[in-house]
Each structure stands twice: as structure tokens, then as C-alpha cells.
Design brief:
Blueprint (H helix, E strand, L loop, with lengths): L21 H15 L6 E6 L13 E5 L4 H11 L4 E7 H7 L1 H10 L4 E6 L34 H5 L6 E6 L3 H13 L4 E6 L3 H5 L7 H11 L1 E2 L11 E6 L2 H4 L18 E2 L5
Parallel strand pairs: 1-2, 1-3, 3-4, 4-6, 5-6, 7-8
Antiparallel strand pairs: 5-8, 8-9
The structure holds thiamine diphosphate, iron/sulfur cluster and magnesium ion.
């Protein structure tokens, strides 16, 4: 077996625009699933409407393509009735933090053992480039031609309101850090959220001055740095992982695993990020 066996290559080329970051996430997810022995028999993907949500159709897994914003209740329901399954959510920033924001808030509190991979392209990609919940203030978009005036949602701050949760920040440029974050998030016995900065070249990047997807990737390379070991929270341009303590992290009714995962205050760095 190899990671390509996770992909429905017969459906390629994908529907995504050339240069889109979503395919990079799918490749790393496939590699991790291959490493961890995840297959149709033990794993379910849940995706939400949006460009990112199309990933479920390109992978050899049972996948649920839910309503926009409803990935988390569907994922939690699957995990509740089939606790032996790995449940992995893949969806956009709009899906998670805008229409799905209330679900995110309360799913974090309940701490189900599910993994969320959030493709954070800072825009509503599928619908043509409207400002979303993570669009940086001042960005000119289709719906904010003079620049957005709102403060973006702080995803790390939200996830870290729970002492149980796992939050990882990475970009699609930093493939090593992305793979590590996905692997550790899937292994985490509780709610795990991977915040992945990626490029929507067609409905965001070009409009804000990037001539190509490659220029966006080079921008991520220049801007992002691994967090120093011991960081309890990540700065806006730091890569790494912040997680709860072993005692705190177990979902209700599940024994805390033994082992030495670092507590909050001992955030792992994003080593191997390239
Ligand atoms: C209930 C509902 N509201 C709104 C929409 C329209 N809609 C579809 S995708 C989307 C936003 C997509 O943005 P995001 O979730 O960030 O995903 P991306 O396309 O960027 O991957 C919206 C508003 C919808 N399909 N359903
Ligand atoms: S519109 Fe943006 S997010 Fe959607 S496929 Fe194209 S580049 Fe990717
Ligand atoms: Mg988006």
C-alpha cells in the first residue's frame, strides 16, 4: 500500500483551481493515513460545503458531505455511535468559524475524540471570494472592496479556551510541519484542531496582489517560523502545537492515557516544518 491508494486518481484532475492549496492538504492527509493504517474500515471523513469540502469525494474513504457549517455535529454523532472509528473533519474557515462557529464553540467544550483539519484560506473560496471570519482586517474582497473592517476570529484563542484541546498551526508550504500536525492530531485522544494557512489564488490571492500561487507559498515561507520550545501559545506567524495535559485531555468517561505529552505551557515547536 502507498498513499496514492488513498486517492481516487481516476477522478483527477480535481475540480480545484491550478495552484490551490487544498491538494497539498489532501496529499499530506493521505500520507498520514497510509502511515497510520487508516482505511475505509476504520475511518470516516466528514466535510462541509465549500471548495475544501470536495476532498471527501477524491479519497477512498466513507465520507459525509454535510450541510455548510454542520461538520462538527455530524462528526460528533458518528463518533458517539461508532466510537471505534477515527473521525476526521476537513472543511474551510468559513464552514468552521462562520456559519459553523457556534458548533465549534460547543464541540470544543464537549471534547469529543475527533480531528478537524481547517483549510484556512482566509476567504469564502467557493462562492467567489467574499470576506470570511478569518479574513485579515483591511483585506479587499468581493464583499469588501474598500477593505474589511471587522476583527478576524482568533481560532487558537477559541480552541484554547478548553484545557483539553489540541491546537496546531501550520501552512501548506511547511509540508513537514503539516504532516506532523495531522499525525499528532489524529493520535490525540480528544478534540484536535489543525489550523492550516493555505492559498486560494483565484478568489483571494490575485486580488490582494500575489501574481501566482507560488508567490503565496514563498510568502508563507518568509513569514512563518517555528515557535520556540516551551511556548504556551503561538504568535500569529508561529508554527507549532499547543495541547492540554494528559489528565485534562481525555473526553468524559475515557481514561487519560499514560505518557508524556507536554502540557499547555510546553508547546511543541513545528520542527521539521519544511
Ligand atoms: C446554509 C448555507 N449557507 C451558505 C451557503 C453558501 N456557501 C457555500 S460555500 C460557502 C463558504 C465557503 O467558504 P469556506 O467554508 O471557507 O470554504 P472554501 O470554499 O474557502 O474552501 C458559502 C457561504 C451554503 N451552501 N449553505
Ligand atoms: S476558488 Fe480558491 S479555494 Fe476554491 S479551488 Fe479555486 S483556488 Fe482553491
Ligand atoms: Mg475558506
Amino acid at each position: 500500500m502507498g498513499f496514492k491508494d488513498k486517492l481516487k486518481e481516476e477522478l483527477f484532475p480535481t475540480i480545484w483551481c491550478p495552484g490551490c492549496g487544498i491538494g497539498l492538504i489532501m496529499t499530506q492527509l493521505s500520507l498520514v493515513m497510509d502511515d497510520l493504517g487508516l482505511d475505509e474500515g476504520n475511518t470516516v471523513l466528514v466535510t462541509g460545503i465549500g471548495c475544501t469540502g470536495r476532498m471527501g469525494g477524491y479519497m477512498h474513504f466513507d465520507a459525509v458531505y454535510t450541510l455548510h457549517g454542520r461538520t462538527l455535529p455530524v462528526a460528533e454523532a458518528i463518533k458517539t455511535v461508532r466510537p471505534e472509528l477515527k473521525v476526521i473533519v476537513v472543511s474551510g474557515d468559513g464552514d468552521q468559524a462562520s456559519i459553523g462557529g457556534n458548533h465549534l464553540l460547543h464541540t470544543i467544550r464537549r471534547n469529543p475524540d475527533i480531528t478537524v483539519l481547517c483549510n484556512n484560506n482566509e476567504i469564502y473560496g467557493l462562492t467567489g471570494g467574499q470576506a470570511g471570519p478569518t479574513t485579515p482586517q483591511g483585506t479587499k474582497t468581493v464583499s469588501s472592496p474598500a477593505g474589511t473592517t471587522t476583527t478576524p476570529v482568533n481560532l487558537q484563542g477559541l480552541v484554547n479556551t478548553s484545557p483539553h484541546a489540541f491546537y496546531a498551526k501550520t501552512t501548506v508550504y511547511h509540508q513537514g510541519a503539516l504532516r506532523k500536525a495531522i499525525r499528532e492530531a489524529i493520535a490525540w485522544p480528544g478534540f484536535a484542531f489543525v489550523d492550516i494557512t493555505s492559498q486560494c489564488i483565484e478568489n483571494n490571492g490575485r486580488r490582494i496582489g500575489f501574481p501566482s500561487a507560488n508567490e503565496m507559498l514563498m510568502h508563507y515561507k518568509r513569514e512563518f517560523r517555528p515557535a520556540p520550545p516551551g511556548s504556551s501559545a503561538l504568535e500569529s506567524h508561529q508554527l507549532g502545537i499547543v495541547r492540554g495535559t494528559p489528565e485534562e485531555r481525555a473526553p468524559a468517561g475515557v481514561a487519560a492515557p499514560s505518557g508524556g505529552s507536554p502540557s499547555r505551557g510546553e508547546a511543541g515547536s513545528g520542527e521539521g516544518e519544511e
